[in-house]
Predict the structure.
Amino acid sequence: MRRLGLLVVLVGCKPAYDGVRLELKDAAPDGTVVSGEELVLVEGVPLLISGEVQSSKSKAYDREDDTFELESDDEAIVTVERTDRAWEFVIVGSMVGETCVHVLVDGDEMECIPATVIAQ
Amino acid sequence: MVDGRIFAGLAVLLCGCGLFGSEPDDGIDDEPPITPPEGMTGERAKGKFNYFCVSDRDPACLSSYALPFPAAIAVGGRFGLMYATSGGDTLAVFSGSPARISGMGASVFAALVPGSTGMLAYDYPDDGSERIVDFLSLSVEVPETVVLRRNDADVTAMTLEVGDEALVIAVTRDFLDEDLAGTLEFEWTLEPAGAAEIIEKKAGGVRIRANGPGDATVTATLGELSASASIHVNGDVATTEPSTSEPTTGGTTLAETTSETTSSETTASTGSTSETGTTSETSTTSTGSTTDMTTGGETDTTGETGTTGTTGGLWEEQP
């Protein structure tokens, strides 16, 4: 009974993924949408974005302890790379088209955010 | 005593002129000074993007001092871009959209599509990952006009003496009449041959030599755009002999110059080898121009001289 209680406590200490919040760090051209649900990028325009990983539990994800990565499903359409700061990225629409951006938290894929690249 | 002072004063003046004055005008234009433009701090302010010119005719570098970072690059223009961190490290730069600005290797790029395009400076830490350290948006614009320039001034007409050499550069401008950066490959013609000829051709400009009295027009063409300048060579036409002299600049020159004018055809053919060993050849006829400006192999020249290029390319520098 004590072991079961300890297990419940340990599981309760882990945050539970509940989406990401992506935020633009600079001005972006008209038509740009950057959020955890959708990405609309103007072809060729690089954007600096920072992210927050949402937790459905009281235990939050932490920049120091948890890794958060974004990976393009099709790098010919979207290029996304982290900067030297944790949870900060540069994203560029390389070519007009549609793809998605994978969200990886602590090495696990959580979702793939739909991404559309529109012409300038 | 007074005469001695005057003499001494004259001597000082003459020496002063020699020491501090400009070089005597020998009628041969100097090669333009080449200075890379100022760097541009990236959006993340981690260092600077450094533009470099891939030929000695890119307007961004045609100065004895560092011009500001290019505001815009011409569509079709080639250029180099590298990144230097504040700590002094040099990082590779990649295009954020290769369909818009294409990488050509060795940090050389070609601007393909007008608009804004992000250039990304990558770092590869020891952990095997890759990171974007900084980025910059470059503006690419469609050239609206072409102007010819000589000795830092726009030129539409020039008067030369026999033996003079004029260095003429073509520059594209945007709708605001601002120079556009980048090395462009203009097509050059000089017609009619006889009074003057093109003795050296590079990516953006030509060296013209005045051979004998008369008039000619030099034209630079880029797609549907062109610019011309009239050339008048002073002298008495009646006493002029056909020129077969050798060019005096531009390195080793294999001068084979034939000037022949008839009512129906004018042909001037020059084969010259510049310092880097490339060969430029031009054939211009009144009924059509056959100028091979892009291939690195053989160049067929129609006309009497029928020369064939044997070196690796027309331009001095290739990416």
Summary: The first strand of chain B starts at residue 40 and ends at 41. DSSP finds one helix and 22 strands in chain B. The radius of gyration of chain B is 23 Å. Helices of chain B lie at 2-20.
